[in-house]
Write a structure and sequence with these properties.
The chain is mostly helical and 227 residues long. It has two domains: 64 residues, no CATH class; 144 residues, no CATH class. The longest helix has 17 residues.
C-alpha cells in the first residue's frame, strides 16, 4: 500500500479528519482494488487492523469476514477505533454484518468511552439498513429513538453525531417507523457537533428523512453495510 499513498491526501486526512500516524494516504478507490482481489480474509483483516496504520485499518474493514468476527474481535476493533471514519464506517459495517451486531451495539452505547459508544450507535444505523423490517426489534428501536431525543444534546460530539445518524437511519430504512422518526427528530431539534476542521455538517433528521421519502427510497435496504 505504501507506494500508493499520496502526501496531499494524507494531509487532508490528518489535518481535517483526525487521522493519526502511521498513515500512507491511500485513496479509498485504491484500497477497493485490494478488496476486489482479496475478497474476504478473516485473519489478514485482523492482522491489518492491529498494525494501527490507518490505511491498513480501513482495508481491514473492507476484507473482513464479518460472519467469523467474534465478540472479542469486535470489542478490540471498537476500542482501537480512534477516528470518526473508523468508528462510523469500518467498525460499524463489520459489526453490523456479524452474528453479534445487536448484542454488541447495545453494549457499546452504554460505554463510557466516547468512540466505543459512537460505534454502538453507528452499528445500529448500519444494522437497520441491511436487516428486513420483520427481523428488527421495532419496539426497541422506538425506545432507542426516544432515548436519542432525551439525551442527545448532553452527549459528546462523536456520540451526538452517530445518534443523529441512527435517527435518520431508522426513519429512512424502517418503513413503519418513518413518521415516528420524523416526530422524534422534530422534538429533538437541530443537532450540532464539532466534526473537525472540515465542511462536514450534521443534517437535520426530519428534513433528511423527507428527502429520502421524496426519492421514493424509504425502506429500501442495502445488500451490505459496506460501501
Amino acid at each position: 500500500m505504501k507506494p500508493l499513498g499520496r502526501e496531499s491526501y494524507k494531509r487532508v486526512l490528518t489535518q481535517n479528519h483526525g487521522i493519526k500516524e502511521p498513515c500512507f494516504g491511500v485513496a479509498v478507490s485504491e484500497l477497493k482494488k485490494f478488496q476486489k482481489r482479496i475478497k474476504k480474509d478473516y485473519q489478514l483483516a485482523l492482522d491489518l487492523y492491529d498494525t494501527g496504520n490507518y490505511d491498513a485499518m480501513y482495508l481491514a474493514g473492507l476484507i473482513a469476514d464479518d460472519e467469523r468476527m467474534t465478540r472479542k474481535d469486535l470489542q478490540r476493533w471498537a476500542e482501537k477505533a480512534y477516528a470518526r471514519v473508523l468508528v462510523g464506517a469500518t467498525v460499524a459495517w463489520v459489526a453490523a454484518g456479524s452474528p453479534h451486531a445487536w448484542e454488541m451495539a447495545l453494549k457499546w452505547i452504554e460505554s463510557a468511552q466516547n468512540q466505543v459508544a459512537a460505534a454502538g450507535w453507528a452499528t445500529l444505523s448500519s444494522l437497520v439498513s441491511i436487516k428486513e423490517d420483520q427481523d428488527l426489534n421495532q419496539p426497541e428501536l422506538k425506545h432507542l429513538a426516544q432515548r436519542v431525543q432525551r439525551t442527545i444534546h448532553k452527549e459528546p460530539d462523536a456520540v451526538r453525531n452517530q445518534m443523529n445518524g441512527f435517527l435518520i437511519a431508522v426513519g429512512s430504512y424502517v418503513q413503519p417507523l418513518m413518521e415516528f422518526a420524523i416526530q422524534i427528530g422534530e422534538k429533538t431539534g437541530p443537532v450540532t457537533a464539532d466534526l473537525g476542521n472540515n465542511s462536514c455538517q450534521i443534517p437535520y433528521a426530519p428534513d433528511y428523512i423527507r428527502k429520502v421519502q421524496k426519492r421514493g427510497a424509504i425502506g429500501k435496504k442495502r445488500k451490505s453495510a459496506k460501501c
